[in-house]
Design brief:
Keywords: Nitrate assimilation. The protein is an all-alpha fold. The protein contains eleven helices and no strands. The longest helix has 16 residues.
Length: 236
């Protein structure tokens, strides 16, 4: 008997155990963060070309970080471009649990989100870092690029932003893992470069995985496009 007419159950994220950090020096961390930022971009021809450079550049990183980044680079290089692009859109544009906008997880679609975005803008200015304006300022690859390209102060500011939004990064990791997404590897590689997750952050992650961020629909114009955040969809 065919069961094709039955609805398919949704994939639910579950909180994963924290990852033990890997020791990297400043230069290695910069390489890892820049590689992750590149690989988390939409997999167009430019990203696929950059993936070849990434695969070579990460060779000197510790194995747990290197293998994840090199493996994703190989997937992007060897996979079918159209299929990868469709998968990327279905993952990051249509699933709120997979949003790469860090303040979304804690602030959701509330007025607090606007204040959080302003803090990101101010942090970039303090670091002397200019963004293109194509994405909201809390876009994870942008923060990773600041960590990689910034001077010592810029790297510290990026580290503070990542630490302040570690719960969102962990929820993103859990959601991607539940989807068995190839981009899980990039987020895992980032998590391996960050300090251990403390008890308070772990508790927030558990709450967010279950309940999702607060909701109070407001406009977010003026902070970038951000149109790919799936903000009209339920927490899924």
């Amino acid at each position: 008997m065919s069961l094709a007419f039955l609805p398919r159950p949704g994939v639910r994220a579950r909180r994963l155990d924290p990852m033990a950090p890997v020791a990297l020096d400043r230069a290695q961390c910069a390489v890892a963060h820049m590689a992750a930022a590149v690989l988390l971009a939409y997999p167009d021809d430019e990203t696929r070309t950059a993936a070849l450079t990434v695969r070579d550049a990460v060779g000197g990183l510790p194995a747990p970080v290197r293998d994840r980044l090199a493996g994703l680079a190989t997937t992007l290089l060897d996979g079918d471009p159209a299929a990868l692009q469709a998968d990327y859109v279905a993952t990051f544009d249509l699933k709120r649990r997979c949003a790469m906008y860090l303040s979304y997880y804690a602030a959701g679609d509330t007025r607090r989100r606007g204040s959080a975005l302003v803090r990101f803008v101010e942090a970039y200015r303090a670091a002397g870092f200019e963004t293109t304006g194509d994405e909201l300022p809390d876009y994870l690859p942008t923060v990773l690029e600041l960590s990689a390209r910034g001077d010592e102060d810029g790297a510290k500011i990026a580290a503070a932003l990542l630490a302040a939004h570690r719960d969102g990064i962990e929820v993103l990791r859990s959601a991607l893992a539940a989807q068995r997404s190839p981009w899980t590897a990039a987020v895992e590689a980032v998590c391996l470069t960050l300090p251990p997750v403390d008890a308070a952050t772990a508790a927030r992650v558990a709450d967010l995985v279950t309940a999702g961020p607060p909701a109070e629909l407001v406009g977010l114009s003026g902070y970038g496009d951000g149109s790919g955040n799936g903000e009209d969809l339920p927490w899924a």
